[in-house]
Amino acid sequence: MRYKFKNGTMQDPAGKNRIKSKLLQQFEEANLRLQYKCAHWLERKTAHWSRRSWTLILIVFTLGTGGYSIYVMVDSFSEPEVSSVPITRIVKTTNAIQISKAIDHLKVAISKGEYEKTIRFRRYMDSLGRSPTGKKIKDSINQNRPGLLDSLTIVEKYYHSQFKK
Fold first, then answer.
1. pLDDT at 162 (0 to 100)
2. Residue 102, C-beta contacts closer than 8 angstroms, at least 6 positions apart
3. Over 70: is that where the pLDDT of 98 sits?
4. For residue 80, which phi and psi values (nearest 5 degrees)?
5. How many angstroms separate the CA atoms of 57 and 20, rounded?
6. Which of 20-24, 31-35, 73-77, 109-113 comes out lowest in average pLDDT?
7. What's the CA gap between 73 and 52, in Å, rounded?
8. What is the distance between the alpha carbons of residues 24 and 18, in angstroms, rounded to a whole number?
9. Number of Cβ atoms within 10 Å of the Cβ of 45
10. What is the 8-class DSSP label of residue 148?
11. Distance from chain centroid for Cα 94
12. Cα–Cα separations (whole angstroms), residue 67 to 29, 56, 63, 71, 78
């Protein structure tokens, strides 16, 4: 039987699905073998334990996890000053320029490609603040180029003002 599809191939799509399903089946079988081996090994190691020792292990585990959970809850309520999520204050930049005055000085049309580059750069700068190493890079960029983010804002506002006229 010949198959002719939109992309011009003569391959059977059901054949590809059979290969994928066979591969998935092999992974499932390997996973089950591994689980069986692990369970058998654990069963051999704990076969000599008595019912009393199992009960004792269960009680110790329950008390340990329950005690730690209670500790975490009480600790989170008792110390409101210390937060695991750092909160940074929003501050106004030291060299802020009046955007309306800066837009008046620009007389150049900004293309869509240039605007998309500024948007990508702004997203990149925002993504740097999400990790500790990225935060260091972002801080060094802001320190060495203090008006860069303000300039991006000016360019974005000017791009949007081109279409309002």
1. 74
2. 154
3. no
4. -75, -20
5. 44
6. 109-113
7. 32
8. 10
9. 9
10. H
11. 32
12. 39, 16, 6, 6, 16
SS3 content of the chain, % helix, strand, coil (to 5): 70, 0, 30
Per-residue pLDDT tens digits for 12-71: 556 667 777 888 899 999 999 999 999 999 999 999 999 999 999 999 999 999 999 999
Inter-residue long-range contacts of 45-49, CB under 8 Å, 24+ positions, other chains counted: none
**Could you tell me which residue, 99 or 34, shows the higher pLDDT?**
34
Distance CA 99, CA 158 (A): 9
- CA-closest candidate to residue 106, choices 159, 31, 40: 159
Between CA 129 and CA 135, with CA 131 as vertex, the angle to 5 degrees is 45
Q: Rounded to an integer, what distance in angstroms lies between the CA atom of residue 123 and that of residue 134?
A: 13
Q: What's the number of CA atoms in the CB half-sphere (13 Å) around residue 6?
A: 0
- Fill in the amino acid letter for 86: P
CA triplet 93, 96, 99: central angle to 5 degrees?
135
Tell me which residue of 66, 165, 57 sits closest to 107, measured CA to CA.
165
